[in-house]
From TrEMBL:
GO terms for biological process: mRNA export from nucleus; post-transcriptional tethering of RNA polymerase II gene DNA at nuclear periphery; protein import into nucleus. This is FAD-binding PCMH-type domain-containing protein. Residues 832-1004 form the FAD-binding PCMH-type domain. The keyword GTP-binding does not apply. It comes from Tetrapyrgos nigripes. InterPro entries: BBE, FAD-bd_PCMH, FAD-bd_PCMH-like_sf, FAD-bd_PCMH_sub1, FAD-bd_PCMH_sub2, Nup84/Nup107, Oxid_FAD_bind_N. It comes from the Eukaryota. One of its GO terms (cellular component) is nuclear pore outer ring. It is found in: Nucleus, Nuclear pore complex.
Amino acid sequence: MAEALYEPYAEVLSVAQSNKDDLEALFDPEQGFAPRMRKICRDQILAYEETGEYSDELELMRLEENTWALLQAVMPARKTEQSVLNSPRDLLQQNPYTPTSTIAQAIMGASPLLTELVVIREWLQETAPAPSHPEATTGYWKFTKHSVMQALRTGAGSRDGLVKEMDPDAVNREDGRSLAADDASYEKNLAQALYGMVRAGRLDEAIELCRRAHQPWRAVSIRGSLFFHWKAISNENDFEDEEDADMWSGNRNRKLWKSSCTRAALNPALPDYDRVLYAALAPSPQTSLILKSACRTWEDHLWAQVSIMCEEKEMMELLRLGGSFWEGGLAAVEKGVRSVSQETVEDEEEQWEKEVHQALDGLKSVHVEDGPAADHPFHFSQLNIILDRSSYLLDIFANGLQNGSYDVVAYEYAPMCRFFAHLCLYLKMIDIPVPPNSAVIILEHYLQVLEAAGQRDLIAMYAGALGENAINRYAEFLVSLELASDPGERRLALTRARDHGLDQDSVATATAEMSMNKAFEILPPLKGPLPSVIGLQPPPPDPETFLLRSIEWTIFSETTYDRALEQANHILRYFLASGRIQLAQKLLSLLPVEISSIAEPEEQATEYLHYRQFFNIWENLERVTECQALEVPKMNRETRNSWLADYKLLIDQARELITKLLTSEWLVSDVETAGVDARRRALIRIRQIYVPELIIRLHFTLFNSRHHFPDNLNLALKLSNIVADSRYKLYEDFNNQSGRRLGDYLEAPPAPSSTYRHFMMSKHSKLRLALLRLSLTFSLIATSRAQAWQEDPPSAAATKACQILNKTLPGLVFFPGAANYTSDNFHYAATSTQNSTCTVEPLTNEDVSAILKIVGQEDVRSPFAVKGGGHTSNVGHSSTTGVMISLVKFDQITANDPSTTVTLGPAATWDQVYAKLEPLNLTVVGGRIPGVGVGGLILGGGYSWFTDQYGLALDNVVSYDLVLPNGTFVRVTDETEPDLSFALKGGYHNFGIVTSFTVKSHPMNGIWGGTLSFSANDSELVFSAVEQFSANNTDPKAVLTLTYNNGVMGPSLVANVVYDGPVEQPPAVFEEILNLPLTGNTAKARTLTDFTLGEFQFLVVPQTGFTQHVIPTLHYTVPIMRTMKIQVDAAVAKAIAEERSIATVGMNCEPYINDFAHSVDSAYPHSPSRPVTPGNPLSFYNDVADREYFEQLIWEMSEAIHAVVIQEGQGLPDDIHYPNYALADTPVELIYGENLPRLREIKERVDPTDVMGLSRGFKI
Ligand SMILES: Cc1cc2nc3c(=O)[nH]c(=O)nc-3n(C[C@H](O)[C@H](O)[C@H](O)COP(=O)(O)OP(=O)(O)OC[C@H]3O[C@@H](n4cnc5c(N)ncnc54)[C@H](O)[C@@H]3O)c2cc1C
């Protein structure tokens, strides 16, 4: 309820502050600050009283009202110059008949403390409880009188025990006799009422009451307390008329009166109430005890003490002066005024002041019968205000606030903060020094109270009162505004700063800065592995939104745009360096256009332009992707031409823009090269994220569009030259690709010399390897003709076939020199690449049929190859020196209706498939790494993240569109062609060419997954966790793979974990491995696309030399994995010692638990009765000429590991070998096992002339 007071207080403060140098106005008894505060309290008290509730609040409010009343009384006395009166000594020397009241006035004027005490006494009287009034009486002792009169009349004695006389002393005099009960009770009530009136300073009312009670002598004794006053002889000239001048009042012999009162107060024979009344009339140290016995409240005690001190001081001074006729008669006049040195006067005054302080100090702990105790904060405050210790008081309260001594939810907390805040401000206004720190603390807390009470409109005003801190404090308040508040509300709050005299720009700048700092305190620092910028990003958590919206403060007004520029850069830097590209885009969209034209500071202006440049490119690349998606198979010529023109324009723009960025020291042109400050670190991190990203995106944009624009392949090659160009040092941006820290990068030796060999041998940086791979591979595309490994010499048959094909399928056949020729022969591994005689890109089943017929024609019989995604690791399996049948145009991805199946072209890649199906909440069983083709992976098996749930990719095929070796088209299903359906499940191109696969779809609602990195030194711990997982995992949704690599960059050990489903928290099944010491962890809830592209993009980069094989295993045990590691390390050591072009040798462990559980009738035998899961030893190397060396190395390594697998009881020598990993030399018996006879029989049937035998691969 008291919350309603914030505004009235603020209003009073606002008026007072406008009068802040006008003491008179501030002390005005009606409109001054304290009286108005008092009035607010009073109104509130009345409101509380009306409700009858809020007793605690009511009491607090009363105390506050009293405190303002005290301030109202005491501050003017303390701060206003008192008119200089004649000293009492001068007055008496001039006129010994000067009336006592005039002398007393002069005594008071000579002592500021006494003046204050008198004022305080008046305050205490004014605020005293209203005195009670006894019932009116019709006569003096009327019941007793009746008995006395009767006794007199009858001569008999008075009634038993009653007094016999009516004089006031009768009770005391007549031993043991008393008044009639009603009179006695009346007497008591009367004395108490009179005491109450004296306590309230209402002497006239008391005198009137005595009159009405028929006790004039009591009126006399009350009047006796008044000093003798007679203007005519007082040297006072301000009397208004003569009559007034001649009037005298007060007690001419006060001294005598006082001693009588004192005696009466000390007289034990008198009733207590009478004694108290006398003690109140003549307060003195002697009567102190009796007076204090009547004190109930703390205020009573204070009043008693102050009254005693005032009375004593005046009496003491009068006595010390001497020379007053009215105090000492003629004798005193004759003696004259005593002369005392000024020094003595001052010493005595000082001594008295000490005594006063001591006495008042005693009230700190006085026992109180009624009302709030002595140590109540308001009593404590009042006492310190009286003692002129406001600084001490404020310090104590501020300390308490700072130490958290007060309970912020207690009902008194807010009112006390409010009171003290206004006290500080009031004291400041009336020029009473206030301890600055304490004032700030108190105001700060009051601001918090206002904030908590939602009093936003008042914040600026009180913050403004903080002086130097005002800007920051108001800024703090603005920072605290809820995110929910709309920009309009925030802008209004900012403009209020100006209304209260704060510089709006400074407040805006401080607010922006504080908001950013606050957000940065919570947000993760920019370190650790580089973020993925692919796929959907999660919605921003509050601190990111907070950071984003901090820009509002500096863009509200044009005058802070320069600050906005710097701030925008800072935020953009953070968002981009943490991969939050959409937030960075959002920030840019909020900024006013004028920011772009700010030229100074140059460094900031350039940085900002660089961000704009980047987003221009980013948006352009998005448009490329959108445009790409617009391509549909059945476009009419005009639409296609128009689409092609748009597509080309966008690609050209992207290439130009990216090339410009890559060759222009983007972001670091203005950055000092020396030193490693945070800004530089962030900028380099941004380059490390986006430069490789842009290069890869541009590369794939060019590469993927090569069919439409063959020249784009050459442009992709040019890109590789830029990447390799030492002037641009783009290789440095490939640093940190695996999460290495900038520190590592900066500590690395100087950039390598131009020779790749030297470059490669430096073990310091993974970036070099990444760059090496990229640039070498790009270069290799250009030089592949010269370097490609030639197994079969070009044959006349192939030449013939190509000629016929060229005639039969004009426009679809390509020869060396054509870009399509290069891309058709291109493989993920250069070691799987050969130079064909020609390539052909069929568009339809009929085209495929024609091709097979031509190559198989009796008079031709040309060697050929069939290429899907080109990821085989075996040379010749999808490469040839004869006719390359590139299925590149069969790349469709179609979700069918009903959505239980999806139809896929063999040249589509799995990442494309996932991205297309994800919006439909669908997925299929497919490859785990981007870039791998649909065709080979399905025809050879297909291990997926979902294999434990749904089987291999081939277990999920519903139908195949197949062109048989004789050119016949057939749709193969289990029902229509059971043999072919069986044969194609593992049979690759032994039975014809598949032009599309219809596969089962499965629900996809996101996954939880990522990469966990470990130190290779912890391999035993990791192996043990994987062994446990391999043996005990029963949840088919959980999949884990482990990879140990070693090579020129040293060893690395990583696990990939995936859990199918929208799980936010790490699934318990991975608990053990997650609890190991991790050096990196990217696992989180995400989309499958984000995971696939985010975690494995580094593998997308084409490889120079790539060889792999398979080791079938039932479970992974520690000894098996230990052997793998030993074998990998040994192979690396061997290759290095023998100076082979090794990059990496590694081993992937794939502990599937259920991979054969969904097996269907298939050529690749994977019966649940004999389960195994693949292990995948592999190597990457940099010289195609080393292919056979590494094939041998991997073969030997696999043999050694397989021996331990068998020894460990986890396998048999004739366990089935997974063909998609198997080395070309693997005997087909180990691939097809017992299925071989049936396959041979089918083959004989569908391909009697062995057309498919003209291609290489695992031949039946
Ligand atoms: C980086 C990388 C990641 C891999 N990830 C996985 C994985 O997660 N799971 C997994 O099981 N395997 C994986 N593999 C192995 C992969 O499955 C095989 O290399 C697969 O054969 C590649 O298929 P492709 O279409 O890309 O290759 P290609 O080289 O084009 O084809 C491979 C074989 O299939 C034949 N073929 C392709 N399409 C057709 C067709 N339409 N009709 C007839 N024959 C055809 C080719 O003639 C060739 O013999 C990966 C390989 C690499 C290099």
